[in-house]
Amino acid sequence: MRDVGRWVMRRVRLYRPDGNALRRRTDRIESFVVLVCGLLFTGSLALAFATGGALYRAGVAAERSGHWVAARVLRDAPAPRTSVDSVRAELRTPVSWTDVRGRTMIAEAPVFLGTRAGSTVRVWLDAKGRPGGTRPDRAMTVARAMAGATGTVTVTGGLLLGCFALVRRSLDRRRYAAWDVAWLAAGKPRGANPETT
């Protein structure tokens, strides 16, 4: 933990504006880019909260918008090929139900393997009246919201780090070119040992 603190303090000293006459123009540009990237990353946290909040609200709306209906299975679902009781795979099979207007609706809905024609099953209908799998639950809603917020921060942070790396590479090229010019002006080849020349 102390090493992380030292690293952070070195970065702060490196990039802070201190009026040091030895700082080159490229150093000041790099400090400015670090400041802009830091501010943009801080702004991405607000974007992450907004994304997570929007996903959460959409999930809660999906939870509340649908409803269960009792549907009759129209065709036998294939029997499971294994005798493992813990496996309850689902397969989309035609079912029928009566909607709120009294109309008979037919669509494919997920039913367990081995369900016989004529059986009554519970089917979750979404807000548009389409049969889905199961009712969205709160844990899935929270997980999607967290994944959306985390993904936003991760993508934004990665893009900002990539941009900073490109700017830093360009600035390093300028620094190396300036050093070459300075060494040549001093009459020494780059990389020469000052003690021996």
Question: In brief, what are we looking at here?
Answer:
By secondary structure, the protein is an alpha+beta fold. It contains three helices and four strands, in the order H-H-E-E-E-E-H.
* Envelope shape: elongated
Question: What number of structural domains do the residues give?
Answer: 2
Fraction of residues in H or I helices = 40-55%
Taking pLDDT < 50 over at least 5 consecutive residues as the criterion, the unreliable ranges are none
Query: Going across the major beta sheet, what is the strand order?
Result: 3-2-1-4
Q: Name the beta content range.
A: 15-25%
The overall pLDDT average reads 82
**Biggest sheet details:** 4 strands, antiparallel
Structural class: alpha+beta
Radius of gyration: 32 Å
* Helix and strand sequence: HHEEEEH
The rounded distance between the terminal residues' Cα atoms is 44 Å
Per DSSP, the total helix count is: 3
Q: What is the tally of beta strands? A: 4
Supply the key terms:
single chain, alpha+beta, 2 domains, 4-stranded antiparallel β-sheet, 4 strands
Describe the model:
With 197 residues, the protein is of the alpha+beta class. It folds into two domains: 26-61 and 140-185, no CATH class; 67-134. 52% of the residues lie in helices and 16% in strands. It contains three helices and four strands. The chain has helices at residues 2-15, 25-65, 138-185; strands at residues 67-73, 90-98, 104-112, 120-125. It has a four-stranded antiparallel β-sheet, with no helix packed on it. Helix 2 (25-65) packs antiparallel against helix 3 (138-185). The longest helix is centred in the C-terminal third of the chain and has 48 residues, at 138-185. The radius of gyration is 32 Å and the shape is elongated. The relative contact order is 0.14. The model has no long low-confidence stretch (mean pLDDT 82).
